[in-house]
Design brief:
Distance between the termini: 46 Å
Strand order of the largest sheet: 6-7-8-3-9-10-12-11
Number of helices: 10
Shape: globular
Order of helices and strands: EEEHEEHEHHHHEHEHEEHHEE
Strand content: 15-25%
Amino acid sequence: MVEIENNKELMKIKNLLIDYKSAGKVVHAVRDLNLSINEGETFGLVGETGAGKTTTALSILRILPEISVKLVTGQIEFNGSDLLKKSRKEMRKIRGKDIAMIFQDPMTSLDPVNTVGSQIEEMIQLHSNLSKKEIRKAAEQMFETVGIRKERFDDYPHQFSGGMKQRVVIAIALSCNPRLLIADEPTTALDVTIQAQILELMRGLKKKYGTAMIMITHDLGVVADICDTVSIMYAGQIVEYGTVEEIYSNHKHPYTDGLFHSIPDIDMEQNKLKVIDGLTPDPTNIPDGCAFHPRCPFAIGRCSKEEPDYRNVGGRHLVKCFLETEEEGCK
């Protein structure tokens, strides 16, 4: 078992800003984002579609679509150095070896014309000096680690079910024992039973290898099941951050509260779910002040004019809201 030093910082993002250009307009995808991840920590990044979660992940690996990116500023410090200042050659050495990613859809993440085994071998070959025979052996061991018989090593992706494909993708991502694993909605395309199996597999492998992980999801159940800390994203910003216990038992931001109230309670009779009024803002036209204020039931005058700072409400718990600082507010 790998001993994990949970208080040692592995990655820190400072003031990250990412703009895209689209149809003559500027899309503000990520706005002044700050977060830190410790060695061995599982960090949940939660939010609706379009909140900026995947863009944040792609920026860490420096694989944002260059044709549409207008501006990237800030710092992404990994193991003490800024990834945004690395050359393309340096980043190729980091991807897969130090930072790996599981993409959203296992159905399209694999090359359909190559065997699944050869795709694991390719990753190991890129980041090691092993012989061809040793690479094959290491890839077969990784296959069995994720629960697939090595007899299926030379099969093609179309011969695997969705859950088995996801196991292959996980094997590829973990084949070089990265220090940070980014999992972007890894269970979205799978049924509930397979989801549970994949999450249990990821939890076991993370514990075995001591890998830190960013879990990107919109499923609060997944976060509760696997994460240590969680950030809630809205309109390109983190609006609330804390440990899973702090967020689940004492969330403070009205948006976080709306997310939790939209989950069905099996112990209560409900005719319909409570929803958050309105729509997420147009990323080309973010409202002034707090981006959530047009939808917030507790908004006050200053919410439309001023952007709130982060406020510590105890422990590691931070909230970007005027809530509780004004008598007219939520409380």
